[in-house]
Design a protein that fits this description.
Layout (H helix, E strand, L loop, with lengths): L1 E7 L6 H14 L3 E7 L8 H6 L4 E3 L6 H14 L5
Parallel strand pairs: 1-2, 2-3
Length: about 80
């Protein structure tokens, strides 16, 4: 299985977010798993759909500053094993 982490501001109904979530079931059948990191602490409109499709959403708020985001994002990458 190939694990992919996508980074978005929030999982709302934007073009890239919608298309990525639409691809989740198709690529899951080919051995590709998607998770998401959002730069907002707020829930997005697509969060429930991502969870129903088996994806996780990690929150690393950018509002706390770039250094805080960098710290949480690097910790996330160290404790998870994403291929892409």
């Amino acid at each position: 299985m190939i694990k992919v982490l996508h980074v978005f501001s929030r999982m709302n109904r934007g073009g890239a977010e919608m298309r990525t979530v639409e691809l989740m079931p198709l690529l899951a059948s080919k051995g590709v798993h998607f998770d998401f990191c959002t730069m907002s602490s707020e829930q997005g409109l697509l969060d429930d759909k991502v969870h129903k499709l088996g994806g996780k959403i990690y929150r690393c708020p950018l509002k706390d500053g770039v250094l805080c985001f960098s710290y949480h994002f690097s910790k996330l990458l160290k404790r998870t094993n994403y291929d892409i």
